[in-house]
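sorry for the late reply, my laptop died twice this morning and i had to redo everyting from scratch. anyway the thing you sent over, i finally got around to it. pasting the sequence first so we're on the same page, its 716 residues, then the predicted structure underneath. double check i copied it right bc i was rushing
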Amino acid sequence: MAGQSADPLAAAEQRAAATVRQMRPDEKTILTHSVMPIDVHKTGAKFPEDAIFGAGYTPSISRLGVPALKETDASLGVAYLEGGRKDWATALPSAIAQAATWNPALVMRGGAMIGGEARAKGFNVLLAGGVNLVRDPRGGRTFEYFSEDPLLSGVLAGAAITGVQSNHIISTIKHLALNGQETGRKFVDMRISDAAARESDLLAFQIGIEQGHPGAVMCAYNRVNGHYACDSDYLLNRVLKHDWSYKGFVMSDWGAVHGVGAALNGLDRQSGEQLDPDVYFDSRLAAKAAADPAYAARLDDMNKRVLTAIYANGLDKFPASPGGAIDFAGNAELSAEVARQGIVLLKNDGRILPLAATAKSIAVIGGYADGGVLSGAGSSQVQGKDGPAVVRPKNGSGSQFISEQYHRSSPLAAIKARAGNATVTFRDGRYIADAVQRARQAEVAIVFATQWMAEGIDVPDLSLPYGQDELIAAVAAANPRTIVVLETGSAVKMPWLDKVAGVVEAWYPGARGGEAIAAVLFGEANPSGRLPITFPASEAQLPRPHLDGSDWVESAGLGEAKVPERQLSADYDIEGSDVGYRWFSRTGARPLFPFGYGLSYTSFEARNLKISGFNASVTIRNTGARAGDEVAQLYLLDRAGAHKRRLVGFSRISLEPGVEKRISIRIDPRLLADWNGSGWQMPAGAYEFAIGKDAETMVTRASIRLPARTWSGPAQ
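ok and here's the structure:
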């Protein structure tokens, strides 16, 4: 796991302050707002010649050598925007698939790749770094976020941001904070105590900021404890800027600003201003600054923070311009490697996998497997050359922005390429009888099942849509040698689980997802992904079995429902900081699959766990017959006599058969502590740790007595 490094933002702050002192009054609101250089309202609006069709544009201050800011979505690659730029980009697998690799170094390479493509297209700001915890697996943006755990999410977000910013462009980290659902996303109020927030969602942001040093933080649409996140003195001034000493700038989400007063509460820039009711951070802000010393000081600080991010990442010294070279073949292979490492083998009865190349007949069914692999929709949508292989419109709209899209990477074609002389047939699954007949005639049936998710829309439950659960059950009844390949954005229920021989979770596997899936199915790649979220057995096991507002909120477009007379809130104090597997540990409920779970084509042994202070060491051995990767997961089990279940460290390791290696894992002390209102506090006593195969299966344990300790700030 990566450690903290010197903060480049702090090093650039003095230069930024010097530039602010040179700015004229009329220049001081140039950097504090941006336009989305797309005529979203079809008004015939014209944009500057150097603006690039994308998420945002802020003009330069040429007199002072300050470059224009040119922004693009998103965390999974340079956004497609319905092909509006007449170009394409490499799609990484979804963030949740990246998290399933538990591999910060690989996630960093992915960040560097998408940052490089963004730079080659002329962008110098990438709206990446989605780190919100998955508190509800029904959330429409679950696929854009990493995990339910603050350590795993924070470390991976920090790695992705480091990769992006290695290209001399700015990355954000988003969406601060508690952006847990899309239903009523513009007004839902997330209620949570300070301590619970600091020990969960905010800790993920804190770790990501410490390790990645993003130039910008993007605040969220939702409210937190009654205040809009982009107008929250608590989130932006107290936590982010004071307690965490963050030196970069806070940008709003697009359409998330409600007034000029947000500046005093810590917002530094209004983004995509034409999506807000008015432009607040231009002439209105200038007038406030001219009349009020508090606004004048705040305006100087806003400019200093934007300039700090620019200088820290070298945007002025290493200008980005369109037309740069992109190694699309190399980037596609990197995307495939992320997909291979993130695919999770959930069931493998009778070692049905890997498939023998000598199989005589394989029936492939459903999931548009003849066309491509599914991706998530919204501002993060990426597409390659020639656009999507399949587009399934939603909500009666012809727009591709919120539509079910498939990357041009056909699992069927990839299976045929590896199946030797076997007969491979395909049925689309629309008619169960047709699929059943074909499955009955084949040695092996592979059903591809999809769960489409999108920004602005939550899923109502965790079933598979379009009657796919019934399809799988019928195929498995006809052929017990049935393997299910899931392309999902989140967890799903599996009422057919005991009837099928194999289950493979492939997530949204990106630009070369079809090839990655086939590589795992046929054993070219040994599955090594581990679940970054818990798969519940049912919605009744969740802290909120009913998704708040889902029975009455009606969205328009991307969750753009206006604030209604009836208020909407979500009580996050139910679980507090016990998110995901911690909630299951607290309640004793048994999930369908636990956090951290994943099978392999080989086997591993962990032994001789030792704890010394905040350092652990353990020996991992490959006890099987082929090379593979194991993820050593270190959990806190008991603290001073109190039951706890917290992931406190992890390490991914590659081992040849029969080889063992002793590895070290650093423990972040904050994960052993509670937030006491002003800092972190650990009680004195015995602390029990274990290496787990997952959050429920512990294989080797060790204890240590630790003294009481209280501190503030980052881990020491």
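The radius of gyration is 25 Å.
thats about all i looked at so far, will dig more tmrw
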